[in-house]
């Protein structure tokens, strides 16, 4: 390509950037107008709701449907995710608590869902994320709920039994683990590998094959593992890209998770009910009396109405020995007439039924 051609293309890019800049600014001014209208239409004593997850899901879906390339749908939606995040911050900067410290996959999930224009607050434990939301110190919390290799995150499920929370969104993240070492690590004398218990389990086969005799130490998070390794010469950590970058560690081995499709699903928790988008999921907790056929009775109404269950998990109820609660996710919104009917039917048979929330299916 000649210098001349290159120059002409750059002139074209500069002029396109000016248009993109003006259009983004116009969009941001529109969002400010939306905020003005929302405030003006408030009833006496009503609190304004600036963040609308159902609307954001629709915006992203539209972008993906209309995208003609060459950028892929996910890439284009990611760019619009950030534009929306900045526009919303003009209306109201969202405060989001997540399972920290900085550099965890939960932080990556929070950024994927809310974009980077939020004020994020790392918490030391899942239960603290719940408490921070309950106390009103933040607008939303982000917690892991299940992993495709290792199953349920029990701390999260148990926290739902203790706190009244509304689930207002979900996000899925592909989880790649690396074996990370610090500047001072003697790589031939590693005697300890730190990581979160879930991550150690997700890399069990790889560890058995490569470091069979090295001690595996479970710590509170992958980022915490990375932080410890920085100051030690005989240890390594299993963590992801964010933690590696944050703590300046290098990758001794990449993508060491046993399953290449290893993914984690995260939930956004808050106090805000989300209206239907037409493509939603609902999460409920149900406890049934301890009698034969109870689980069958619980599942029949879903089957009879053709409602798709996406997950069912059992946990001890914590209110009696050998009594259980079921965590169920299914497709649909609790305001859909069909779903309403199913929930009514279940509540007639159940000891207790709690709708944790209906929320748009993950778009990204
Ligand atoms: C602009 C609005 O407020 C927020 C910002 C949005 C955006 O930038 O597109 C979408 C939904 C809201 O979270 C709105 O409610 O439409």
TrEMBL record:
Pathway membership, UniProt: Metabolic intermediate biosynthesis; prephenate biosynthesis; prephenate from chorismate: step 1/1; Amino-acid biosynthesis; L-phenylalanine biosynthesis; phenylpyruvate from prephenate: step 1/1
Residue stretches making up the Chorismate mutase domain: 1-95
InterPro entries hit by this protein: ACT-like_dom_sf, ACT_dom, Chor_mutase/pphenate_deHydtase, Chorismate_II_sf, CM_dom_sf, CM_II_prokaryot, G/b/e-P-prot_chorismate_mutase, Preph_deHydtase
Keyword Cytoplasm: yes
Record-annotated ACT domain positions: 283-360
Listed Pfam families: ACT (PF01842), CM_2 (PF01817), PDT (PF00800)
MF GO annotations: prephenate dehydratase activity
EC number(s) on file: 4.2.1.51, 5.4.99.5
Source organism superkingdom: Bacteria
SUPFAM superfamilies: ACT-like (SSF55021), Chorismate mutase II (SSF48600), Periplasmic binding protein-like II (SSF53850)
Reaction it catalyzes: chorismate = prephenate; prephenate + H(+) = 3-phenylpyruvate + CO2 + H2O
All residue ranges annotated as the Prephenate dehydratase domain in the record: 95-271
Gene3D superfamilies reported for this sequence: 3.30.70.260, Chorismate mutase (1.20.59.10), Periplasmic binding protein-like II (3.40.190.10)
Functional description taken from the UniProt entry: Catalyzes the Claisen rearrangement of chorismate to prephenate and the decarboxylation/dehydration of prephenate to phenylpyruvate.
Listed name of the protein: Bifunctional chorismate mutase/prephenate dehydratase
Gene assigned in the entry: pheA
